[in-house]
Amino acid sequence: MKKTAALLYPRSTAARQAVSLDGMWKFRLDTQGSGIVDGWKDGIGPADTIPVPASFQDFFTDKNSREYTGDFWYETEFFVPPERKGKSVYIRFGSVTHRGTVFVNGAEIARHEGGFLPFAADIAKRANYGGSNRLVVKGNNELSETNLPVGRTTSLPDGRKAAKPYFDFFNYSGIQRPVRLLALPKTAITDLSLIPRLNGDKAELEYAVETLVETGEEMEARLSVLDEEGRIVVEAQGAKGVLAIPNPRLWKVRDAYLYRVWARLYRNGELLDEWYEDSGLRTVEIRGTELLLNGESVYLKGFGKHEDADLIGRGYSLAHIKRDFELMKWIGANSFRTSHYPYAEEVYLMADREGFLVIDEAPAVGLFDTTNNALDTVRGKKKVPFFDKETLPELLETHLKAVQDMIARDKNHPSVIAWSLFNEPEDTSETAIPYFKAVFDAALDSDPQKRPRTFAVIMFSRPDTSKGCQFSDFICLNRYYGWYVLGGCDIDIAEQALRSELDGWKAQHLNKPFMFTEYGADTDSGLHKLPSVQWSQEYQIEALEMNHRVFDAYDFIKGEQVWAFADFQTGEGIHRLDGNKKGIFTRQRQPKAAAFYLKNRRESLPENYKSRSNI
Ligand code: CKX
Fold first, then answer.
1. Can you list the domains of the chain with their CATH numbers?
2. Nearest-CA residue for atom 13 of ligand 1
3. Closest residue CA from atom 3 of ligand 1
4. Catalytic residue positions?
């Protein structure tokens, strides 16, 4: 996406104002698909009201609203103060899922594809200064094989559309993240890139400030780095440079230290723009089978998560963000993966503050033709390997953009230690290779810090069949031995099968760290059984114990992230009891019995578990 000052995280400073537009908005499902023809851009007519931000699905009491697929419309009014005239004025959306078109006072001013990243609409030419303005947003939640996440949209006999996700989470949608009105200077900072470097006990911060400057303007960029007490530790002039940080305090796992980095833009001594990032001094590197943070080996203990909660669906909720971090601290976790899409920006800010390690995942889930759409194969429809599809070039374009935009948004967070570029793709055909290469190259090119890249490998991709693993800097395995494979009373055989698969990976001599980014068992928080059966609380503990016994026996396994942090909503079906129940916590964020077992294990494993002394 083109860089604009409005895409930077919205912060009010001496030069910028960010005002929340969140609240109760008007809302209308476009069940007849007539919104455009009927001129809803000028006002959506008789409508419901609904909270923004939130997913719309779980407020209503009828199934048609919950399952609705197609266009949906939001409307609100906002005031633009007269003194904003002559400035850049934008409306910034944290996300509109999966796509949105924005109208201000009847004029279309922006379109955006992709439901998990921010975008901004320039309203300067359309705004009514000193008066009220009408903001209308047309959202759409249809799925396709050329958009992310992947799925398809079918037509029901009565003409309604139905979303068919190729992924295992509910197709929540709407204006799910905060909306803000921004007033920005015309001559503005459009980007700041930070690269920390360590050398012995010395630390450097390389920086680059990008600006939007009107032709012929003489500008000066300055940078100030402040410690947590607000004292200036170093200052610099110029748009680029490398700064030595005196007496550096490093950003460490669960022991974060954040420096505030102010970028400022001046003309003849007059301040035109200022903006800051809270940044940490840390390095991330893969060496052999080690993941090194600041040169020290680290073992990932954590979860795959979802943004998912009662009533608000995938809607932004600071309360849930706070509770989730408290639970992760309580249980002794140090990391999580943003399965299966980039999360709200505030999640990363909290991870930066709390010293959590984040594997940041692109919304590239569902690139598989036999799991969630398996019935088509059974019904005899022709099965084409996913990466042989004719639609691939278009999907690749969407995918590259999603990766580039995710990295542009998240590149300065010290908490982000790696990019996950796919979840569980069907990577066993030769045709996957050029696609993977393009996506992995794009991630490397986009990231000033050159973080490690990976993807989560589905259980059908094996040591001798995965074509994607050659591109990963470290290997992430999603494995369900003891659940989908050899579950219940076959768990002893499952253990042997898991060991034998790991022996297979060992024999490949990849010399890379491996992590388990998914393992676990669905568990009903009300079910106890002796001896255990699948779905019981006792069985969840047994399945975890079995996996851990195996992980402990292989020194190249350098991390374990249970699936999942909390129970979450999925579509209905015979495999799901009102959602996926593999949570260690319930959807209401209370512990299942396994949480106490896991806390014990996690607290007993040092952060550098399995570190090799020869590093
Ligand atoms: N992995 C067969 C992706 C997650 C799902 C998880 C599950 C799968 C398993 C792959 O999004 O929720 O079925 O629990």
1. 5-184 (2.60.120.260), 188-279 (2.60.40.10), 284-604 (3.20.20.80)
2. 168
3. 168
4. 424, 518
pLDDT of 404-431, one tens digit each?
Answer: 999 999 999 999 999 999 999 999 999 9
CA of 168 to the centre of ligand 1 (A): 6
**Residue 99 Cα to chain centre, angstroms:** 16
Omega within 30 of 0 (cis) for the link into 340? yes
Taking alpha carbons only, the member of 570, 577, 495, 584 closest to residue 540 is 584
Residue 517 near residue 423, CB atoms below 8 Å:
no
The finding on whether 479 has its CB within 6 A of some atom of ligand 1 is no
Please tell me the least confidently modeled range out of 336-345, 377-386, 407-416.
377-386
Between the alpha carbon of residue 377 and those of residues 424, 533, 538, 571, 590, the distances in Å are: 18, 31, 35, 20, 39
pLDDT digits (tens, 9 = 90+) for 529-581: 999 999 999 999 999 999 999 999 999 999 999 999 999 999 999 999 999 99
Average pLDDT over residues 449-462: 97
Sort strands 71-80 and 88-93 into parallel, antiparallel or unpaired: unpaired
What is the arithmetic mean of pLDDT over 124-131?
Answer: 96
Give the number of other CB atoms < 10 A from CB of residue 478.
21
Q: How far apart are CA 68 and CA 61, in angstroms?
A: 13
Give the Cα separation of 211 and 344 in Å (integer): 25
Q: How large is the average pLDDT for residues 117-125?
A: 97
Coil, strand or helix at 83: helix
Global pTM value: 0.97
- The reply to whether ligand 1 has any atom less than 6 angstroms from the CB of 522 is no
Two tokens at 406?
């995710």
CB-ligand 1 contact for 168 (6 Å cutoff): yes
Between CA 43 and CA 22 the distance in angstroms is: 18
Task: List the structure tokens of 168.
Answer: 């295992």
Q: Is 561 in the pocket of ligand 1 (CB under 6 A)?
A: no
Q: Specify the 3-state DSSP secondary structure of 426.
A: coil
